[in-house]
Amino acid sequence: MDCLKALLDPYPLHQFFQENWTKQAVFIPGTESKKFSHLFGWPQFNYLLNYHRIKYPDLRFSRDGESLPATGVDQWLERVQEGATLIIDSVHERVPELKKLVANIRQELGYRSQINLYCSPWDEKGFNCHYDSHEVIILQIAGEKDWFIFPETIAFPLWKMRSSDQIPPDVPPYLQCTLKPGDLLYIPRGHWHYAIACSNPLLDDYSPSLHLTLGIDCQTGLNWMNWLEKQLEENPQWRQSLPVIPQGDMTTVKPHLEQLRDRLIELLQNPDTIAGYLDYLSYSDRPTLPFSFPYQLGSQIFDQGLETRFRPSALHPVKIVAIGDNHTQVTIAAKQATIKGIPTHLVQQFFLPEGFTLLDLADWCPFLDVETEVIPLLTRLVTQGILFVEASSNLEP
């Protein structure tokens, strides 16, 4: 878990999972103020506002717990100057560094996540005391913000158990801290909290606060039940109408339900049922495979000759299954390909994170003809988006 470990540094990863994860909030001072500068900063924020023209509800405003009506671009500055917090939802969809962070967290923790952005003027509170229905990791980018964390009143709330319908705890915060650039705060699902961007009049510092919220949506036992329901929908025995109930007589309904119960128990005891859900967890909620032009059009793939390097997407796991003698099925995201004529153990080397060159492939598979077998195979894998050509540009996928 290198990515999460780097975010939490210097706090030990094992201690985080043992003492804090889903249990208790923790404030982690950063090792330096620029700890998260490689992820985001004011230049990227300005670029989003100037060139992306993000519309409501992806870009919205909140002040003192109230969502403000949608407004045009010409009023954005005025809203913030008046004390409103500017929020951009799913900012990782627009910033490559954050998209990679989300993909890495998905790979390390196994669950979907997203990143929202919050820009708050000093001495202002964007939201009233509330809780979230997902795990929350705050990354302070710029400015300072006071946070107040309170215990849960509902254990592990679902998204439909809105905090606005609940009464906040009438106790002092169990954690109170000031986040400065490079600091991190973890808040478990269901723990009440609010924050106020702070100023330092003694230093004549009235800087606004800029932070990222990484929200992690863990699956629950109820999600497994929902998945099971979708599997059962494919079976006509479960879609069949229950027997009629004449005059309230349940005589015929009871044995029908008992029969379904027995089938459900049999299904749950089948190892394939859990294996199917685990497979679903492995490949669901992954980012889409990146585009890679002009290579995916079959152009310039081998411009670097024998030094041409190929690699898999760093954001997606690869499933490799032997389906016969020298036949291998490769699955990545929604793409699937069958590779023939190469032993499965050699195909696995195609998908090592460091990638491989044509020279490497010649060493692994000397029995393949370059012109008639190697080039057509690699061309097919690249154009299908299963392998990528490693380019020198920083814009490569």
Spatial order of the strands forming the largest sheet: 1-9-6-11-5-4-2-3
What number is the mean pLDDT? Answer: 92
- The share of residues in helices is 25-40%
Q: What is the N-to-C succession of helices and strands? A: HHEHEEHEHEEEEEEEHHHHEEEEHEHHE
- Give the class from helix and strand content and strand pairing: alpha+beta
Number of separate strands: 17
**Low-pLDDT segments, ≥5 res:** none
CATH top level assignment of the largest domain: Mainly Beta
What general outline do the C-alpha atoms trace?
Answer: globular
**Radius of gyration of CA atoms, rounded to a whole number:** 26 Å
CATH topology of the largest domain: Jelly Rolls
Quaternary status of these chains? Answer: single chain
CATH architecture of the largest domain: Sandwich
CATH superfamily of the largest domain: Cupin
* Share in β-strands: 15-25%
Largest sheet: 8 strands, antiparallel
Please give the domain count.
Answer: 3
Q: Enumerate how many helices there are, as a single number.
A: 12
Description:
This protein has 397 residues and is an alpha+beta fold. The chain has 3 domains: 2-218, Sandwich (Jelly Rolls); 222-283, no CATH class; 295-389, 50S ribosomal protein L16 arginine hydroxylase, Chain A, Domain 2 (Malonyl-Coenzyme A Acyl Carrier Protein, domain 2). Helix content is 29%, strand content 23%. It contains 12 helices and 17 strands. Strands 1-9-6-11-5-4-2-3 form an 8-stranded antiparallel sheet. The protein is globular.
